[in-house]
Specification:
Layout lengths: L5 E7 L5 H6 L7 H8 E6 L7 H14 L5 E5 L12 E2 L2 E2 H10 L3 E5 H6 L26 E4 L6 H14 L12 H4 L10 H5 L10 H5 L55
Parallel strand pairs: 1-2, 1-3, 3-6, 6-7
Antiparallel strand pairs: 4-5
The chain binds iron/sulfur cluster (2 copies) and FE3-S4 cluster.
Main location: membrane
Keywords: 3Fe-4S, 4Fe-4S, Cell membrane, Iron, Iron-sulfur, Membrane, Metal-binding, Oxidoreductase, Signal
Subunit structure: Heterodimer of a large and a small subunit.
Amino acid sequence: ETKPRIPVLWLHGLECTCCSESFIRSGHPLAKDVILSMLSLDYDDTIMAAAGHNAEAIVTEIVEKYKGNYILAVEGNPPLAEDGMYCIIGGKPFVEQLKYAAESCKAIISWGSCASWGCVQAAKPNPTRATPVHKVPGLADKPIIKVPGCPPIAEVMTAVVAYLLTFDKLPTLDKQGRPQMFYSQRIHDKCYRRPHFDAGQFVEQWDDEAARQGHCLYKMGCKGPTTYNACSTVKWNEGTSFPIQSGHGCIGCSEDGFWDKGSFYDRL
Ligand code: SF4
Ligand code: SF4
Ligand code: F3S
């Protein structure tokens, strides 16, 4: 409570803003407590009141005033083709803003599958060269926490922020750079339909009796067996449900390249 609130620059590249939409729905902790009491969210061009040059000046101010002591949160990614001209922020390519803000930050949080992996805007043949944050030239050596998902779970996002602030260090990351505490298990490992998988009881058509009985969605293309995320434990909307519980298989939205791996309905 007595710690000064750590400044955060939240940048937006090529993205759909649903990572922000997810974040503001966090129930534990409440997003408002994170933003108003834990962090000093000094720049977020999607929700801030300031606009134009006044807004852009804040980035410079924070970078210069808090060198090495601010967090850079990135939603979306920069397109590198044509010198970054496919995403312009404040009259300049987004990639320039990203590199400038990354240079002196304490850590980078790559929100969602856009910042972590590239996502749909990087789908083959990726004409704009949409590039995930860690592959942007010059950023590979930065401390980067990937929080993939399209979007990531709200409580996972706020928990990562809470961890950073509480322990003043990065959470333990797996080989792909994701916090182990949320990405070490497959959806399939904790799925409540797993007993049906083990018993060989599968949905074969969307409206068959097995679908009504809640049997396993593997044969309908569920990617739960190869997807590492916390949906089957933490769930969504404050623990209410997750895609499989609502009757649709997991499309693997937190996995690298999920958008290019054929139809979401192909079996594994
Ligand atoms: Fe939107 Fe998904 Fe990208 Fe988040 S990761 S900004 S939800 S497209
Ligand atoms: Fe696994 Fe998907 Fe079946 Fe759940 S519905 S048990 S995640 S294959
Ligand atoms: Fe995404 Fe699969 Fe969870 S589609 S939201 S990782 S259940």
